[in-house]
Amino acid sequence: MTNARGPIGMFDSGIGGGTVLRHVHRLLPAEDILYLADQAHVPYGPRPREEIRLLAQAATEWLLAQGAKVIVVACNTASAAALRWLRREYPNVPFVGMVPAVKPAARQSKSGVVGLMATPATMQGELLQEVVQEWAQGVQLLQQVCHGLVEHIEKGELDSPKTLALLRTYLTPMLNANADHIVLGCTHYPYLEALIRRVVGPTVHLVDAGEAVARQVARVLDEHHLRHPGTPRNGHITYATTGDVAHLATLVERLHLPAGAVQSATYAVSCA
Ligand code: DGL
Predict the structure, then answer these.
(1) Ligand 1 neighbourhood includes 44 CB (under 6 angstroms)
(2) I need a labelling partner for 77 at 20 to 30 A (CA). Which of 19, 41, 149, 238 fits?
(3) CA distance linking residue 98 with residue 141, whole number of Å
(4) 68-86 per-position pLDDT tens digit
(5) Are 114 and 48 in contact (CB under 8 A)?
(6) 3-state SS, residue 193
(7) Residue 212 and residue 183: Cα distance in Å, rounded?
(8) CA 220 to chain centre
């Protein structure tokens, strides 16, 4: 049973969903947040859909067992592969998922050219295809699968020459095509904003869905009468990882995420 005193549960393959957590915490400071980084299995992007579903289910089960009152799939890749399926499997659990912010980018573009950076599984997913069909017909959408970036970010390489070189490879064709908006379609990518700016300059708009997801979390809590009843209060944040706790603690600090306890999450999942 969902309990309004329980935490907001969030998960991602790694630290990427932290870029969403920042917005959720800012908008809902009274709420406790339990953030699960499935770093034993990062990256999700190159994996087959069935495998991502298994991982998303295991993460969901773990968060529910810790008392999470809502599950935020703070990962475009897991949303693409598993969100609809999760909603069917757990009809009594409120889920908030995400899809790359193509809609606002397409609406606001003046040049009519929008770049999209995402993982392979997100690019192949139906959620994105539907958004593109509905909202991006009037623009040229340059879809770039960005292999390797998630791995760099997980290692804390936010400004290494290798990361910069990868970004140049991915972004230069967008600039040459006159893209004026670039959608960061993976929750890891906003950590690279400063480096991306070095490649694209100051005028190109970088768009991500973090803030919109936070607003949706607030709406879902209201809809289900799940706001923490003890307000005003300061919510606690807990980070958990299926990987190395010390490494996650270092990333939380390095990426300037809101302070919180860091712990291990152990559960079985039948996946490499
Ligand atoms: N942060 C995840 C996303 O938004 C990263 C996916 C991955 O692990 O490849 O898609």
Answers:
(1) yes
(2) 238
(3) 19
(4) 999 999 999 999 999 999 9
(5) no
(6) helix
(7) 14
(8) 18
